[in-house]
Amino acid sequence: MFLKAGLLSLLLLLASRVLGVVRETALAAAFGNSGMADVVIVMVTLPDWLAGVLVSGALAYVLLPHWARESPAQQNATQKRLAKYLLWGSTLVASVMVASPGFLGALLVPGGSPSLQGSLNQAVVWSAIALPAAVLAGLWATRLQHERDFLGLYSANLVVNGVLIAALYFWSVRGSVTGYGAVPTLGIFLLVAVFLRLLWQGWRMRPLYQRSGLAVSSPAVSDPLPGWRIWMWAILGAGLPQTLPFLARTFASGAGEGALATFNYAWKLVELPLILAIQLVASLAFPAIAHAHGRRASTNNSQRAAMTAAVGGALVLAWTLACAAAAALLVGAPAIASLLFGWGRMQASALGQIAAWGSVGAWGLLPQALLAVALTVLATLGRMRFAVFAYAMALAVVLVVGVMGNRNGHQLMWALNAGFLVAACVAWGALGISSIRRWVPLKTLLAPFVVLVALAAMSRWLDLGGALPAEISMSKQIQALFECVVAALIVIASAWFAGPGLRQALRS
Question: Does the chain have fewer CB atoms within 10 Å around its N or its C terminus?
Fold first, then answer.
């Protein structure tokens, strides 16, 4: 189920995420970890984050099953009706943001200095202007997902990131060191990026309207939309996972100027393997798990074993990749931080913090692997309320840590790790002890974990990557990156030879 996935969609997803990291690299080169970097990060991420939390993720949960029962003409009618509601709602939210930029700026960047207040207010206004386009893009992306137009779906973000990278490069070359004038310049580029994304998505959807216009056998009146309870659980289920790192980043800003940017860069070290390995495995495993669950009504042992094989295979692969990525970060975080962010105006002390916080966040990949598979099973079983409860518990952990005044990035990374661990325990607990015994191959999971712990201890003992990133020469950096690859391969090899679980998962 993993090696047979569509190559085009995987490549586009990879390109989209990698380009997102390149955008952060360009941002670090242009502004380093200054207070202006905090402001720019908030401006360019806030529209898509709000759209994702409020509607984008929920749209997929609600509309994909709904559209499956409708004709193309009815789907267009539903989309048009929802677009009107979403544009009115997002315009109202944007108006509130424009009316209270000072309050929102202080809430989002509590560590910002008074000298940056004007720039922060402008950033909130530019984000508000871009919000309706971001919300509409979320709806259109859901339609492209329904039509399985992966080229239109994933390349839309390539458009946004490409424009923003060009803008950041332009500013790093020609902009002032103080960052004066950065917000209006990048705000214009942000609007260009989100509207170009809409133009691309609209162009990809042209055949849908032409096709539905030719269909006269079915009425264009859409079915009633699902009730508010379904929307509420969908919004919570999709929004809470995106809120966790955003909340931790906001708390980190309380430590002073630049702390938000530093934490954001450190989280990127964790986010890339999380999305490209762990969450991707869970997504690819979804059809196999759903198919196996659909056959469980029978008492046939072979059919019951299909669920065990599907869940166990996804768990082994996600866990192994999580351990491998964690090993790579623990062995070579300074070199990776230097490679990604050691450019332009980034300071050596900030690179050291990015590496240290990224190493802490690496341990959070393990509970997130368990959590991703558990949530996939809960979604298959139609028990998303437990998934919402799991993430609510994780959010409570981060909130308690932040409210108690722990604003250091190191502490907040451990808070995120603890939150993900609590969420994983809640999610697997909802599946029951008997399911855990059947589906979780403890012996197979133990081998990569033991090797990871051994590599982490050896790295600490040998002080691998102990120097600050700025002190690493090019040859040492290449050596450190090679050590990262070797550490990840050792972890994967331990799982490969520990039992047939990983080999079966890759072959299925």
Answer: C
Same domain, yes or no, for 252 and 373?
Answer: yes
How remote is the C-alpha of 2 from its chain's centroid? Answer: 20
Q: Which of 233, 127, 236 is nearest to 187 (CA)?
A: 127
* Residue-range definition of the domain harbouring residue 39: 7-226
Residue 183 placed within a domain: yes
Distance of alpha carbon 429 from alpha carbon 374, whole angstroms: 9
Residues 6 or more apart in contact with residue 497 via CB below 8 angstroms: 447
With 0-12 / 13-18 / 19 or more C-beta atoms within 10 angstroms meaning exposed / middle / buried, residue 147 is: middle
Domain boundary among 226, 259, 279: 226
Residue 476 lies in a domain: yes
Q: What b/e readout covers 373-391, taking b as 16+ CB neighbours within 10 angstroms?
A: bbbbbbbbeeebebbbbbb
Q: Residues 6 or more apart from 398 whose CB is under 8 A from it?
A: 244, 247, 248, 251, 412, 415, 416, 419
Residues 221 and 323 in one domain: no
Alpha helices in 274-300 (DSSP H): 280-294
**DSSP state letter for 225:** P
Residue 1 lies in a domain: no
In whole angstroms, how large is the CA radius of gyration of the chain?
Answer: 23
Question: Do residue 256 and residue 182 come from a single domain?
Answer: no
Q: What is the pLDDT of residue 359?
A: 94
Domain count, the chain: 2
Question: Model confidence over 306-360: pLDDT tens digits?
Answer: 788 888 888 999 999 999 999 999 998 888 998 889 887 888 888 889 999 999 9
**pLDDT, tens digit (0-9, with 9 covering 90-100), for 83-123:** 999 999 999 999 999 999 999 999 999 988 888 899 999 99
Give me the phi and psi of 468, to 5 degrees please.
Answer: -65, 145
Which of 226, 246, 261 marks a domain boundary? Answer: 226
